[in-house]
Design goal:
Elements: E1 9-10, H1 14-24, H2 37-41, E2 46-47, H3 54-59, H4 66-80, H5 99-108, H6 112-118, H7 123-139, E3 141-142, E4 145-146, H8 150-160, E5 165-169, H9 176-184, E6 191-197, H10 200-212, E7 218-221, E8 235-240, E9 267-268, E10 271-272, H11 281-290, E11 292-303, H12 312-323, E12 327-333, E13 345-351, E14 366-372, E15 377-378, E16 386-387, H13 390-405, E17 416-420, H14 421-427, H15 435-438, H16 452-483
Parallel strand pairs: 5-6, 5-8, 6-7, 8-11, 12-14
Antiparallel strand pairs: 1-2, 3-4, 9-10, 11-13, 12-13, 14-17, 15-16
Helix pairs in contact: 8-9, 8-13
Length: 488
């Protein structure tokens, strides 16, 4: 497409540019073909109206009415592509931004470095992707939510291998799970996407993100706890990063009292699961499981404490998932992978395909544990955030793929091991912390293998005892001082 600068394209991958160029190469002399919307839609790309193209925006950057012009362009885009309706609010003319600031931003993205690195055909799409990334990095945590680092998303996708079928994310954020799933399939078009998001702004980000990547999807806005917009959906794959410990700090919890007793999501094997009023983590796991079709698998991010928390309701859900044969794999990751928190996380894989169906081997009574806490390195230029490298991702994903398709992978001390149900049930009382199963690489015991949430209550009890001893000792010292004539 570099030979046809008249047409700006929303796309996410050079393969698509090649797909677009090759079928039309014989028409490069006929510019009318470049305006044919259907030609581009067939390969997941979109032509911008002439007035909305970057060259036109750049030419008018210094105009006194540039803010009005930008609002008009947003309206034109929504008119041209109904999929964008409601996603591009007209905000420039009524904003406090002065004309010079708006012009300066346009000129910034008009610098040669952007065209050299990204190519003029896809500049607007790349600029939008940049701002999505910056929003995720700067926003970090919002009400218990963390935007999922791309390396974690890519690891989930590499392990799930979603090639064909339905992908569901009931807390989809800006839609990164959908985009990476499509990249995994090399944009084959074999996946359909369903999502739900409770925040209006993030909901619009997701829909726009799908649009600029040439993807369609049924994305709804609403609270997944109490207003499941996809109630009847059964998906081949669930991919998600739910809010960590939602409700644990609020006075009213997360809304457990609003979940009806007969809600079908609460049942595992006919038994009704209790809910923790102060923590929604188990509710998310029940929600994911309920939306899996027979043969489907869910891969999701979860706070590490959920591996071993002993609160009655949370333990009961974890126990039921294990006894029901749904827990397929647990991966514990390093801390510092999220931008604005050092909270470590784990990846859970729940599967309704563990009986040897659909090309998978039978894995009943087995759970794969992977301790990947030693993987990952600081992002260059960052002092606090890590990322997983491509070799890291492959090291973990390869073990799970072998477990699903070939056979029990060889145990690697300190990294991975398959445990049987009796061990999980009897020896570890349903604790799913990988370190308990894989041991350490040098064969010695390691206190760090015991999960923080298991150790913390003991540490608090020990501290209370020390405080009591300290107070008693203080009284004794004061009494001794008085005996020799000194008041403290």
């Amino acid at each position: 497409m570099s030979e046809t600068p008249a047409a700006h394209v929303f796309t996410d991958h050079s393969l698509r540019l090649k797909q677009i160029a090759e079928p039309q190469s014989e028409y490069f002399g006929d510019t009318s073909v470049l305006e044919d919307q259907d030609e581009y839609r067939q390969v997941g790309a979109f032509v911008l109206p002439e007035d909305a193209r970057w060259e036109n925006i750049r030419k008018n950057a210094q105009a006194d009415d540039i803010k009005v012009r930008l609002d008009n362009i947003l309206e034109l885009l929504e008119t041209t592509y109904p999929e964008l309706k409601g996603l591009l609010p007209r905000i420039y003319a009524g904003s406090n931004l002065d004309r010079e600031s708006v012009s300066g931003l346009i000129n910034l993205f008009s610098k040669e470095i952007f065209e050299r690195d990204y190519g003029s055909e896809d500049l607007i799409g790349r600029v939008y992707e940049y701002f999505i990334g910056e929003f995720a990095s700067s926003e970090g945590k919002r009400g218990g939510e963390y935007f999922t680092p791309s390396s974690i998303v890519r690891l989930l996708v590499a392990m799930l291998e979603p090639e064909n079928g339905t992908v569901f994310d009931p807390c989809c954020g800006s839609g990164g799970m959908f985009v990476q799933s499509d990249v995994f399939t090399h944009h084959s078009g074999g996946l359909s996407f369903y999502g739900q998001e409770s925040k209006d702004f993030t909901y619009r980000l997701c829909r726009m993100n799908l649009f600029i990547h040439g993807l369609g999807g049924n994305i709804q806005m609403g609270n997944s706890y109490t207003d499941d917009k996809h109630e009847t959906l059964k998906a081949d794959f669930v991919l998600a990063n739910p809010p960590f410990n939602d409700g644990s700090k609020g006075e009213n919890g997360w809304g457990a009292d609003k979940i009806p007793n007969n809600d079908p999501r609460l049942k595992i094997g006919g038994a009704k699961m209790p809910l923790s009023p102060r923590n929604a983590n188990p509710m998310w796991m029940l929600h994911f499981l309920s939306h899996l079709k027979d043969g489907g698998t869910a891969g999701f991010v979860m706070v590490t404490g959920e591996l071993s928390n002993s609160e009655t309701a949370r333990l009961e859900v974890r126990k039921a998932l294990v006894e029901g044969g749904y827990v397929d794999c647990i991966v514990q990751l390093s801390g510092q992978l999220f931008a604005n928190t050092q909270i470590p996380c784990t990846l859970w894989f729940l599967s309704k395909n563990r009986n040897g169906e659909k090309g998978y081997r039978a894995r009943t009574g087995e759970i794969l544990f992977i301790d990947a806490r030693k993987l990952g390195a600081l992002i260059p230029g960052s002092r606090k955030q890590k990322e997983l490298s491509d070799p890291d991702l492959e090291q973990v994903a390869m073990v799970y793929r072998q477990f699903k398709h070939a056979g029990v992978p060889e145990a690697v001390p300190g990294f991975c091991r398959v445990a049987v149900m009796d061990e999980v049930r009897d020896e570890h009382k349903y604790s799913l912390t990988p370190g308990r199963y894989v041991g350490s690489a040098d064969g010695d015991g390691d206190d760090d293998e015991v999960d923080f949430e298991e150790r913390m209550p003991h540490l608090i009890a020990e501290l209370k005892e020390q405080f009591t001893q300290s107070a008693s000792l203080e009284i004794e010292i004061q009494a001794n001082l008085r005996e020799v004539g000194f008041e403290f």
